[in-house]
Amino acid sequence: MARYIFVTGGVVSSLGKGLSSASLAYLLKSQGYKVRLRKMDPYLNVDPGTMSPFQHGEVFVTDDGAETDLDLGHYERFSNISAKKTDNITTGKIYSDIIRKERKGKYLGKTVQVIPHVTDRIKEFIKGDITNEDFVICEIGGTVGDIESLPFVEAIRQFSNDVGKNRSLFIHLTLVPFLKSSDEIKTKPTQHSVKDLRSLGIQPDIVICRSQKSIPKDQRKKISLFCNVSIDNVIETVDVRTIYEAPISFYKEKLNKQVLKYFNIKPKKSANLIPWKKITNTVLNSKKEVNIAIIGKYVNLKDAYKSLDEALIHGGISNKVKVNLLRLESDNLKSKDVKKLLKNVTGILIPGGFGKRGTEGKIAAINYARVNKIPFFGICFGMQMAIIEFARNKLNIKKAGSTEFDKKCFPVIGLMNEWNKDGKIIKGTNKELGGTMRLGLYKAKLRHNSLVRKIYKSNNINERHRHRYEVNRHLQSNFEDKGMIFSGMSPNNDLPEIIELKNHPWFIGVQFHPEFKSRPLNPHPLFSSFIKAAKSK
Ligand code: GLN
Q1: Is the pTM of this model over 0.90?
Q2: Which ligand 1 atom is the nearest neighbour of the CA of 437?
Q3: According to the model, what pLDDT value does residue 420 have?
């Protein structure tokens, strides 16, 4: 029977609840247990799919096509367990489910209320779609005390009461600040945060204290006393040099040991920390460096391209190089400045994106990479921009563009049924955007003798998608005659999935998002190969 671990946060947000949950999942899994990770988000959007990356960072996509919180990316990368649609829920989703049910008269005339209807729906989420998991780790977004998170806190309180203490555990993550002026570590914010949690009926079993400095014994005793938690369950997490050190640091602090002790069970085998030690060593000590430019709209926002940044670092790990990322805002990129700005980089990457802003800057950078034979990687929108650049400059289609942002263009990129057999646009179709995205895993077959075929070492791949527009396949032979081959196609040959240049050391565009499947312990082959090419440039 599954045991449930609830992770809440206090004092401030961004303390690393996601990373703590993911590290704990890795440790428990490597000790022989089956683990599942889940996230409850207290905002009113039904999913983060429609939110701007400026608001909420990257939208992570699962195999089964859910657009989720980026913490699910951390979970997957650390635990190597693929998340599912059923692993992320928001207040918006809960309310929309309830209101739909209410409209159908499913509540039999009853008054629909936060308790029990909202809390029941949350409890359904927590225990839904579980098979033989030993542990379900559920993280609650936001900070205890926020109005938004109250129904979730209430639901986990009830849940623990329903299943019993021997099957539920509360972990609370708080901040223990260090005051430079008095050279002191302060436990008061933690005391208050736990007091808040207790006033909502939850006594934490483990308190994880995020701190800049190691917490002295006396201070730990104080936290133990005031928070009513045994001293062994006051776990510190001091800032790590790289996130890959987190599982090692939590192991040293005995987080997994205390969790197993709480449930009165023994590890089935000892935790394997060797891969994390190796990775940490490579990340911290690699002497050689590569400079990669990422050119996009949201580059100034930390977390907007979280999985991508990570996947590039993973590519560095497999090549034993340090990857320096030069983030360039595509809006301000003029073709006359491209050369100067990109002269020190040996790899250029254009990530996914939506809308017109910044497209010309991206196209200018792609032109520079193509002509100067700099390794280039175009992801989703980046691939689409590479198609436009090539069409304009090699196929001489000056009005080549995407119907996403230019309705009068020659559609080298457009909606699937927007063009007729000649590759020309059919006017007046597809006004609706909703429900037209390709989301989640789709298969592609790779062309014999292509670069991607060599990189993947396989004829068939299955990658995660999140896009609406497609490359106009009717122009395939025009592109191929000029040296840009469509080396990956959907199984029915309808949709171009990968493009590459024949006479270029490394120029690849992919319609999917390989970054979502890259893991530090198993870097994605495209990223390893891209960094290898950048290293040898
Ligand atoms: N905006 C493009 C589309 O919808 C690309 C999306 C993306 O890069 N994820 O097809």
Answers
A1: yes
A2: 4
A3: 59
